[in-house]
Specification:
This protein is an alpha+beta fold. It is built from 6 helices and 13 strands. It has a 4-stranded mixed β-sheet, with no helix packed on it. A 4-stranded antiparallel β-sheet has the order 8-7-10-11. A 3-stranded mixed β-sheet has the order 1-3-2, sandwiched between helices. A hairpin with a 5-residue loop joins β4 and β5. α2 crosses α3 and α3 crosses α4. The longest helix is centred in the middle third of the chain and has 20 residues. The protein is globular and about 65 Å long. The relative contact order is 0.10.
């Protein structure tokens, strides 16, 4: 979501793109820049900058998850990296703090580029990005990305001209539309314990806030969360894993942590999903089957 590919990432994405041709998004914001689909990248979009002909890669699977407006903004953000010639060459020689600070500044500059596009479709995409980052608040994806609040503030400051008034409603992915400074209406959703084929206790954070835990080693009550508005939220889940000894007692066998994003609407149910050798994720739990007619 706004970082140039490393050399290894470039090679992998290039191989994936050559092996899997797909139609581009077609923004064409800069001459000579290709847009290629690759489901091997871990962000909505990434850019290769240090090439004679730069490329923007986008992940069609994540694009479908987040919708066309946010996808458009993040692709435009990658064009910002190319337009400003953001590079990581030589940054490995800098102290960690100086390097991370410079990369965060690049992210904000790329956000500003995307926000400064003046056509109506770009404006709608920028508004979607403001709502997205406003909900992230103090959370950041890693040390080289600013917080959601910092990014929303920068995007607002880079919007061309006065912002048009918006009305309340529901966005294309279920995110409510309204003034970005307003408090979104909270919804309630549940998180269920992991499958009982092993002992597990999962602790959940949403947008950087610890919201509780669920366990399959006691009465499997779901965790009810009602502190957030509908929309896209980041989560982190740490799963403590237990095994049974010969006396059928649970013994701790370590822990694993996973991260991701959720599209949340009122009444949703998610379940902690994990298998040995993987990291835990939250998956949407299908609603219970109703009575047969």
């Amino acid at each position: 979501m706004g970082r140039p590919l490393s050399l290894l990432g470039l090679m992998l994405a290039g191989v994936a793109a050559m092996g899997r041709p797909a139609a581009a998004q077609g923004l064409h914001l800069l001459p000579g820049v290709e847009e290629l689909a690759s489901d091997s990248i871990e962000d909505i979009a990434v850019a290769t900058v240090d090439l004679p002909r730069p490329v923007v890669y986008y992940n069609p699977l994540m694009a479908r998850r987040y919708g066309p407006l946010l996808t458009r903004f993040f692709i435009a953000h990658e064009y910002g990296h190319i337009a400003h010639r953001h590079t990581r060459r030589g940054l490995s020689e800098l102290p960690d703090e100086a390097r991370d600070s410079l990369l965060r500044a690049q992210e904000l500059e790329a956000d500003c580029y995307a926000a400064g596009l003046a056509d109506p479709e770009a404006r709608a995409a920028t508004e979607a990005a403001i709502r997205f980052f406003t909900r992230l608040g103090p959370f950041s994806f890693d040390a080289v990305h600013p917080t959601g609040s910092q990014r929303a503030s920068m995007i607002l400051s880079c919007l061309p001209g006065p912002r048009e008034p918006v009305v309340y409603g529901r966005g294309e992915t279920g995110v409510e539309i309204g003034p970005v400074s307003g408090e979104s209406e909270r919804v309630r959703f549940e998180v269920l314990a992991p499958a009982a084929s092993y002992g597990g206790e999962a602790v959940l954070w949403v947008d950087g806030l610890r919201v509780g835990s669920v366990s399959n080693m006691r009465l499997a009550e779901p965790l009810t969360v009602d502190r957030f508005g509908a929309g896209i939220h980041s989560y982190r889940v740490t799963l403590e894993i237990y095994g049974l000894d010969p006396q059928l007692q649970f013994n701790a066998n370590g822990s694993v942590t996973g991260r991701g994003q959720l599209l949340v609407q009122g009444g949703d149910r998610f379940r902690v999903d994990w298998a040995p050798g993987t990291t835990p994720t939250l998956v949407r739990d299908p609603p219970p089957a109703g009575p047969k007619p």
